[in-house]
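Entry 14: structure prediction run for D-fructose 1,6-bisphosphatase class 2/sedoheptulose 1,7-bisphosphatase. Input pasted below.
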Amino acid sequence: MDSTLGLEIIEVVEQAAIASAKWMGKGEKNTADQVAVEAMRERMNRIHMRGRIVIGEGERDDAPMLYIGEEVGICTREDAKSFCNPDELVEIDIAVDPCEGTNLVAYGQNGSMAVLAISEKGGLFAAPDFYMKKLAAPPAAKGHVDIDKSATENLKILSDCLNRSIEELVVVVMDRPRHKELIQEIRNAGARVRLISDGDVSAAISCAFSGTNIHALMGIGAAPEGVISAAAMRCLGGHFQGQLIYDPEVVKTGLIGESREGNLERLASMGIKNPDQVYNCEELACGETVLFAACGITPGTLMEGVRFFHGGVRTQSLVISSQSSTARFVDTVHMKESPKVIQLH
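Run finished. Output tokens:
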């Protein structure tokens, strides 16, 4: 995957973010998501590639675009043989979330972004639309903290790894009833909790950047977003672990499948032999090359949101590459109108 593709995926997330941001604060989360999907798909289909969506707009609502298994890119067209050399073409797996945090956009809250991850075919874990227990932490704690340990134990380990007191640590947790005991344990241990309503991809990635004042992500969120987070953390050298949650009683809301037994059968049909396996980021994003891109829709910890001005739009994006070992912040001005010609008299 060459550098040209890296530049083009920035434009993919930029266009999705711009489209969604037009609906910021209007209370229309479904519309904010739909326009992001359409913009992302339209720009993807202008890239010289053969891509396959492995995580996308999904199983909950039978999405017509960017659904799991959809092929995207110029080289998926019927007439592709005339301009795509199959011997030179790399097949790409793509995980997308065109509007991560739809509620955040709808109500004008911080932290929403358009996001995707890509790798060569087979390089991304095709996570079902289940939930996932997650643990993200900075690179200094990689391999030291463990999802099977209690929050109290992991906070002590983090404290040692980061040379900070537990009282100085900030842990992000999704504000959900299922996390009531976890939140209390973190507070009892002495750390501070930052509750978020949506958008845990940004929280996970923020752990890998110093200066964000986010030192861990703990708790249960959506599994597809877990894979996208893992792709970024793989590139950044951060710690990420995920474990699929298939029991509806654990999450109490929204899980695909009405029974534990039915969900176990579904996992088995997908070839997941050990449903309780703990995956690290190298397993969730195992490809030789992994690229991650995000663009802020509303302002967040890492990026500014989309800003409209007369005649244009300004965006801020982040692209992370395992190939070049870089994390680039890209500030872009999109000029929508030609400058007016000044008449000299």
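Notes: The first helix runs from residue 3 to 21. Will compare against the previous run tomorrow.
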